[in-house]
Design goal:
10 helices; alpha+beta; 8% strand; 4-stranded antiparallel β-sheet; MdtP/NodT-like
Amino acid sequence: MRLRSAALAAFVAVCAVAFPTHAADPLTLDDAFLRVADTHPDLRLFGARHEALKAELDRSSLRPALVAGAEVENVLGTGPASGLDGAEITLSLASVLERGGKLDARRTLAQSRIDALAIGREARRLDLLAEVARRYLAVVGAQREGELAQLGVDQRDRTVAAARRRHEAGASPESVVLTAQAAFARAELDSARARQREAAARQHLAALWGERNPAFEIVGGDPLDVPQVADFAVLADWLQRTPELAQFVDQQRIGEARLQLARSEATPDFDWQVGVRRMAEGDDFGLVGSVSIPLGTTRRAQPGIRAARAELTALEIEREAMGLSLYSTLAEAHGRFGVARLEAQRLGEDVLPRLAKAEAAAATAYRAGAASYLEWSSLQAEHAAARQQQLAAALEAQRALIEIQRLTGQAFVAGPGLQHNQGATP
């Protein structure tokens, strides 16, 4: 569980950011994790369930109750039994003597349900932390899109100025200036849209801990910094220890406890009773007692035993199905991560530097009258599209990384020949 809890810390290390709820009150991503862990209703619900299961454990630990009774015979009849003179009164104490380990079986079942609840709570808590990381990444991505949009605004503003100078010099028609101004307005629209997406993503993030009017700002962080991950074979091995599968171990313990309880029902219990009786004649007293045992308990217990065995068999099949599903999800996430990381890396190393040089050369040529506005504008649009493509690929790789960490319960930021765990989140 500590490894699973540490999984999301890798995202913190990758982004290395903090976000405040107020300008003077910065809030780190770990603080956001703490807020969700302390306040989210899904987690507080486990506290109430734990109390209910503790009460069930206490109830299961109780032995059969003692039953006190009184019996009156030969009263309010006829002849010698008329009135109360011939009454015989018996005071008794009765209970059930449990056999077959029923008490221990009930305790084991109740305790195993408590243990399973703890695992379930931890799994849900970590799923929420993964959701925090995903929503935080959405804010970072929207902020980065805003920065790219502002680059486009500045770029188009310089284009409008250059087109206006050429038009004033009589080197180009007014239509070029109008076209450049339209491109500038579209760039401003993209910038405003990015700001709106950032505000919506911030609201979505703050909703996890119940903040209705978030005013925090995210500072720092580079979503383009995508780490390496371990080989798929290593990830698949880690998958065997994920909490999703660990829950089946607890469910198996519950099933085994139910089977043991069903088996204990095959051993009959003794109903016993002892008491003292006052005789009608001479005011004498005598002891009375009885023992009874039900017949056919072994036969009646067989359906419950078969049902408990069938549930254990079904649980094993469910675990196998879950393992296959998790393996498929891990393979898909690992594939998405590899493709997206490669795309972001190659765009940054090969494509964007060449487009930047080509755009700069086209700008120089346009100012010198050696290139048309259409050539320069096309290169500007292609450069901006490549930057957006790189950001989209990097964000996709980061989302896949969070999913891999959620599945494997591991935190890692690996470089060439290096892999290490990060600190744990709350």
